[in-house]
Design goal:
Blueprint lengths: L2 H6 L2 H24 L6 H24 L1
Helix pairs in contact: 2-3
């Protein structure tokens, strides 16, 4: 998902995707702790994507005030 795609989504969709992404991230971290995954860089990429979505949600919140 690119920055442009994030900006096109509605706030409700972003919140829904954020919850899903957080669950997947926690599952990935737990899996990696037990058995190493093939691509550990995916953990970093997922964390950065969660931050991007949080940033967009915060920007929308500040614009609505």
């Amino acid at each position: 998902m690119t920055k442009e795609e994030i900006k096109e989504l509605s706030t409700a969709d972003l919140k829904e995707r954020l919850e899903q992404m957080k669950k997947e991230y926690l599952q990935l971290k737990a899996t990696h702790a037990v058995t190493p995954i093939d691509n550990p860089a995916k953990i970093t990429a997922d964390r950065k994507m969660i931050a991007r979505v949080n940033t967009e949600l915060r920007a929308r919140e500040l614009n609505n005030k």
